[in-house]
Structures are given as C-alpha cells and as structure tokens.
C-alpha cells in the first residue's frame, strides 16, 4: 500500500507531566508494538479531540489529568502497518491516579524526562515532550512574575 492510498485517521496523544516526570506507555498494538510512547488513540465519531485525549489517558493508564493546551499536530505515517495517523498532541498536568496499563498498553509508568528521551524511539514524540516541558517552565515563570 502506498502512502497516498492510506486514509488518514484522526487520533490524539497526551503528554502528561507530573513534576519532572512524563507518563509513558508500552504499546501492545500496531504500529510500533513493544515501543514506549505517549498514551493516546483514535478519536471516536462525534467526540471532540480534547475529550478523546482525556478518555484515552484514562483507558490506557487509569490517570486523571487537566489538559494544558495543544502542543502539536503530527503525521504518523507507518507504511509497514498500512496506517496514517494525524496525531493531535495535548499537554496535560497530572491530577490523580497511579498508572496501570490497560486497553492498548502492556506497561504504563511515569519516567524521568532523561529516561523518556532514552526510551522514546520516535523523534516526533521526543519533540512534543520537550515542547511541553518548555511550555510548562514558561508558564511557571510567568505565574511567579
């Protein structure tokens, strides 16, 4: 299947921060089975993207969070799996719950930002995590001023 033959699928990702840690899951389904990633998934018909982000976060990790804003929109094109996702990535602040893998994950845990950079295998994911951290630091600075 060629890239142009794949129908784009709208999906969400959540960069959930708890202090100096980010929540990661180990994927149990294609694409990128077994790799560490962000919690997220497909947007259901009639569902708003932000609602999908919080639903997917709960389903995959059991964690509750508050969305802090849109971070980026990334194309995830995986020809080997015949998939093209349009990933709408949201930043989030952890509110409650300890991660428990569910749904599409075999593991879920908060990891240090240094460990996340090492564990994440896709440059686009490392970038949205770094962008979210930069935004959090800037927001904390402006709140102090």
How would you characterize the overall build of this protein?
The structure is a single chain. The chain is α+β, with helices and mostly antiparallel strands and 145 residues long. The protein is built from three helices and seven strands. The chain has helices at 49-61, 113-119, 123-144; strands at residues 8-18, 21-27, 36-37, 40-42, 64-78, 83-96, 105-112. Strands 1, 2, 3, 4, 5, 6 and 7 form a seven-stranded mixed sheet that branches. Strand 5 (64-78) and strand 6 (83-96) form a beta hairpin. The mean pLDDT is 94.
CATH fold category name: Nucleoside Triphosphate Pyrophosphohydrolase
Helix tally equals 3
N-to-C SSE series? EEEEHEEEHH
Total number of strands: 7
* Alpha-carbon Rg, integer: 15 Å
What is the CATH architecture descriptor?
Answer: Alpha-Beta Complex
Distance between the termini: 53 Å
Assembly state here? single chain
CATH class categorisation:
Alpha Beta
Write the layout of secondary structure elements.
Layout: E1 8-18, E2 21-27, E3 36-37, E4 40-42, H1 49-61, E5 64-78, E6 83-96, E7 105-112, H2 113-119, H3 123-144
Task: Throw out a few tags for this protein.
alpha+beta, Nucleoside Triphosphate Pyrophosphohydrolase
Quick description:
This protein has 145 residues and is an alpha+beta fold. The protein has a single domain (3-144), classed as Nucleoside Triphosphate Pyrophosphohydrolase, CATH 3.90.79.10. Helices cover 29% and strands 41% of the residues.
């Amino acid at each position: 299947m060629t890239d142009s033959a794949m129908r784009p699928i709208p999906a969400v990702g959540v960069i959930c921060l708890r202090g100096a840690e980010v929540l990661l899951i180990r994927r149990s389904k294609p694409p990128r089975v077994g790799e560490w990633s962000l919690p997220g998934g497909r947007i259901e018909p009639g569902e708003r993207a932000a609602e999908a982000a919080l639903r997917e976060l709960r389903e995959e990790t059991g964690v509750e969070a508050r969305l802090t804003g849109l971070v980026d929109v990334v194309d995830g094109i995986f020809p080997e799996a015949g998939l093209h996702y349009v990933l709408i990535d949201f930043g989030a602040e952890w509110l409650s719950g300890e991660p428990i893998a569910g749904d599409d994950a075999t593991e879920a845990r908060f990891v240090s930002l240094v460990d996340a950079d090492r564990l994440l295998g896709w440059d686009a994911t490392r970038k949205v995590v770094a962008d979210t951290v930069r935004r959090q630091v800037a927001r904390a600075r402006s709140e102090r001023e």
